[in-house]
Amino acid sequence: MALPGGEAMARCWRVLRPGGILVGIASAPAPSDARRYRARGVYFIIEPDRKGLTELARLADSGKLRAMAGRVFPLADAAAAFDVLQREHTQGKVVLTVRPEPPWTDER
């Protein structure tokens, strides 16, 4: 469960089962809380990696790395998209589009 820190993180300890892991992304979970709830707290932060990002860009530009959209929903159908995430296993990402597709992209 990854949530921002502060009060939101403090409330999350209660829903973890013993042995669970609380992942802090804004701040490190308090070790005293981890002991009290018989769980583990870890702090997760991503450091920028210029070399890795450059390699990803090279692979994307060459076509060897592609994002795969599994299902695409208009923003108005966000609830249906969320439903799919909860009930189905999809390959690729579930994507919300903000603008309708231009009419010339329709397959006829």
Give an account of the 3D structure.
It is a single chain. With 108 residues, the protein is an alpha/beta fold. It has 2 domains: 2-43, no CATH class; 50-105, no CATH class. It is built from 4 helices and 5 strands. It has helices spanning 7-12, 31-36, 50-62, 78-87, and strands at 2-3, 21-24, 40-43, 69-74, 93-97. The protein has a 3-stranded parallel β-sheet with strand order 1-2-3. Strand 1, helix 1 (7-12) and strand 2 form a beta-alpha-beta unit.
From the alpha-carbon coordinates, what is the Rg to the nearest angstrom? 20 Å
Q: What is the overall pLDDT average?
A: 83
* Uncertain ranges: none
Q: How does the helix and strand content classify structurally?
A: alpha/beta
Main beta-sheet annotation: 3 strands, parallel
Topology, please?
Layout: E1 2-3, H1 7-12, E2 21-24, H2 31-36, E3 40-43, H3 50-62, E4 69-74, H4 78-87, E5 93-97
Parallel strand pairs: 1-2, 2-3, 4-5
In short:
By secondary structure, the protein is α/β, with parallel strands linked by helices. It is built from 4 helices and 5 strands; from the N terminus they run E-H-E-H-E-H-E-H-E.
Which descriptors apply to this entry?
single chain, alpha/beta, 2 domains, 5 strands, 32% helix
